[in-house]
Description:
Blueprint (H helix, E strand, L loop, with lengths): L15 E4 L6 E6 L7 H11 L2 H8 L10 H17 L3 E6 L5 E7 L7 E7 L7 H14 L4 E7 L3 H9 L3 E8 L2 E9 L10
Helix pairs in contact: 1-3
Amino acid sequence: MINSAMSPHFPAPLTRPICNFLTQETFTLVPLATNFCDPESYAQIVSICNQPLIYNTLFAERLGGHPYAQADAERFVAWAHQGWQAGTHFVFLILTPQQTIAGTIDIRSNCLASAEIGYWMSAEHPGVMTNAVKALCRIASQSGYRGLFALVREMNTKSAGVLLRAGFHEAGREERRNRAYRRFVLRLDPIGKGTCS
C-alpha cells in the first residue's frame, strides 16, 4: 500500500510545453498514464528504440541482439501505465508539434529523497532533451521530490551533456550489473521551485 504522505503529489495539469532549442518549435511533455493502443504510436516507439545509439545503449544486451519489437513496446507502455496507477514510477512521452512520439522521460521511483530518472530521444529531434529534463525537474520539485539522479554509460557523452546543461553535477561512479556508470545528481529546492529553471 502506498503511503500518500511519502509519495509524490503531482500538480495538475501535467502537460508541459518544451521548446526545441535549435528550431524553436514547441514539443509537449505528457504523462503516459492513459490507454494507449494506436498501432502507429507503437511503431514510432519501435523505430526510435532501434536507432543505433538508443538500441546499443539500452537494449542490445537485454534483447540478446534481437531488434526491439512491438511486443517490447507494448510491455513498456503497460509498465508505464502500471507505474502511474500504483504510484511507483512515472513515465512521460515527449511529443512533436505534429503529436508524434519523439522520446520518453521518466522518474523511476516514488522515493522523494532521491529518485533516478531515465530518458531516450529520437536522433531526428536534436535540441529537445535538455529542456525536457529541465521540465521534468520542475515537475519533480513541485511534486515533493528533494533530489534526482541519473546513471550514464561512459560512452554516452551526449547524455552526460544533457544532464550537465540541465543543472546536474557529476558525483562519481557507480557499478550496476557489472557495468560502470557515471552518476549525476541534482538537489531540488524543498519549497517547490527546484534548482533547474
